[in-house]
Amino acid sequence: MTMDLLRSEAMQLVQLIIPMESAHRSVSYLGELGLFQFKDLNAEKSPFQRTYAAQIKRCAEMARKLRFFREQMIKAGFSPSTRSMIGTDINLDDLEVKLGEVEAELIEMNVNSEKLQHAYSELLEYKLVLQKAGEFFHSAQSIATAQQKEVEEHRLGDGSIDSPLLSEQVLFCCRELSTDPSKQVNLGFVTGLVPREKSLAFERILFRATRGNIFLKQAVIQDPVLDPVSGEKVNTNFLAVLLVEKNVFIVFYSGERAKNKILKICDAFGANRYPFTDDVGKQYHMIKEVSGKLSELKITIDTGLLHRENLLQTIGYQSEQWNLLVKKEKSIYHTLNMLSIDVTKKCLVAEGWCPVFATNQIQNTLRRATFDSNSQVGAIFQVLRTEESPPTYFRTNKFTSAFQEIVDAYGVAKYQEANPGVYTIVTFPFLFAVMFGDWGHGICLFLATLYLLLREKKLSSQQKLGDIMEMTFGGRYIIMMMALFSIYTGLIYNEFFSVPFELFGRSAYDCRDSSCRNAYTVGLIKVRDTYPFGVDPKWHGTRSELPFLNSLKMKMSILLGVAQMNLGIILSYFNARYLRNDLNIWYQFVPQLIFLNSLFGYLSLLIIVKWCTGSQADLYHVMIYMFLSPTDDLGDNQLFIGQKYLQIVLLLLALVAVPWMLFPKPFLLKKQHLEAHSDSHGHEDFEFSEVFVHQLIHTIEFVLGAVSNTASYLRLWALSLAHSELSSVFYEKVLLLAWGFDNVIIIVVGVVVFICATVGVLLVMETLSAFLHALRLHWVEFQNKFYEGDGNKFYPFSFSLIGEQEEV
Predict the structure, then answer these.
(1) Alpha-carbon torsion 576, 581, 586, 587, what sign?
(2) Three-class secondary structure of residue 380 per DSSP
(3) What dihedral angle (degrees, nearest 10) is formed by the CA atoms of 126, 128, 133, 138?
(4) Cβ of 596: how many Cβ atoms within 10 Å?
(5) Beta bridge partners of 15
(6) 433-473 residue pLDDT tens
(7) What is the 3-state secondary structure of 240-265?
(8) Verdict on whether the full-model pTM lies above 0.70
(9) Crossing angle for the helix pair 421-436 and 545-578, nearest 10 degrees?
(10) How far apart are CA 24 and CA 213, in angstroms?
């Protein structure tokens, strides 16, 4: 698989001549194969002018119905079943009829449910009005009966000289009103319900409009009710009812003018009015009748909803299969619209790209389509010659695809260009681990990834995981590699949550004096052989820990950076050799390799020599005075014999490499152009100035980039140091500090804070930070040495990609 990744697959431009009767099945089978990219031969036509526009419109209408079913299921609390329906093969025509019938039935159910719910809400409100207004009339009648008795008692009793004058007058008026019907006033009344939030304003407006010539009584309804009007508009499907708190009101008035004003105010406030009678017998009969109708309606509504739920559940079992069929058919007709019709109107002509290795598979697929469609004529497969640049196609699996996506995010490789994805599989997680080195954190990261790997099948079958979870799951193998490399570099750094362990033997150092208590202040001496693997645990916590690790990690960053940049330059050689471009080999690869290694390759050599010899030479001084005073003696900074003369030679080589990159290539390109056009009569111009400026920019970019890119690799040192120090701070200032108290609560709080800080900062933020820095080192410092990344990606017509796209 890695050899497949190194160069993109060999591609060929193919023409297919397919009979009309087998065209649909041929395209369908090619979609199942997923190795043919169709070219649009009708680019000049609009979508409505193409041959299969009507079929696409049919598919779009069916997709609309499926979206409608999905919305209804979501509102009803159902989710489409992902299980496959066995033995439910259905063609597009039958599906179209089926969807039309189901949609008509579902719409009819919704309309009927809406009407029934509207009638139920009205009857429920009417029942509340009858109950509350009946209670008001009953209490008013009781008060009137008590007052009548009081009047009768006063009438039968003898008047006394001690009786108050006002009481006598009141009793006289009451007698007069009761005996003279012409002086009695007939009051009308209006009953209904008004929203509680509008009740105060409703009462105020009524009082002002009638100048106080009304009597309003309101009763609070404890439970909110569904408003027949607003509930009908807001919730047509009765799945999330709109409940409103309301008050029952009764307004007494006198005169038609007052009545008209009251009715208009009720309409303005959205108050629902209902008829009412003051006859107690009729009230009882009406309540009984309304209650009976409510029970009947409730049973009818529940039965309708149950039938609707059963229908939606049946749809849910088949909706995924229907949706997939509609998507497939629509994609087939879209593809057929890209084919041109032969002059005889009997064949469709297709052109497209396919890998060379897929030739036999495509031919077998076309033969099978011809046989299954009972066509008398088979499809014709022929390879076309073209100067057009083919698309780039890499065969990847679930492990390598994520690494290839990292490279493709920068730019798709040109056809047959060396692919950085092969090296990224190792170099990307390794550079991440250099910045993240802690085998405790690496184990935590690996366990989190292990969960994703163990539940891979279940998570991959879920349609929606969320943006962050989906991105994490897609890069699970990258994270696994980063975790494994982090464990490796953590063992080299000897850090487990910043704590060192003697895993590979005892430390090589011990206390200078056997009686000393604190070896870190008195000093250490070497008493055993060198620690076999990684950093000696005794370095941690000493006064010289930071200078030692700083020097180690900074020099290591330079070595890794120079090695990776050299790899990039070497890959540019293989690109040029593969494309038979000798100019790029002699006037780009060779001077670039000389320039980079004359300066920073030499620096890497000095670092290794200094490590091997234990010299105290100052490498900063050596590199600075290599440019300022190349002929001066090095003195104590000399690492080996002949170093001074080697530096002069390397400096001269670096100076020669710059014009070597700049001047020869534009002139040689011009010479090649003149030789190529000397025998022909073409007058194609060669823009020498443009070529020269381009080469000048390329040369300056490389010379300056050699310095800046090498310095950029120092981020490996900086982030590694930051990660180590943060881990040390969390361990010492949070966990150990809390552990020093004898209070259980403080210890628990300290452990919780330590875990939260470790997970939130070190395992999430630091992981993301190191990931982005490793990404930059690959995109900018590594890939710009050889990778052009301006190719076209191979997008085959494939049904397997339909599930990854949005709903049709």
Answers:
(1) negative
(2) strand
(3) 120
(4) 25
(5) 351, 382
(6) 999 999 999 999 999 999 999 999 888 877 677 888 889 99
(7) CCCEECEEEEEEEECCHHHHHHHHHH
(8) yes
(9) 170
(10) 81
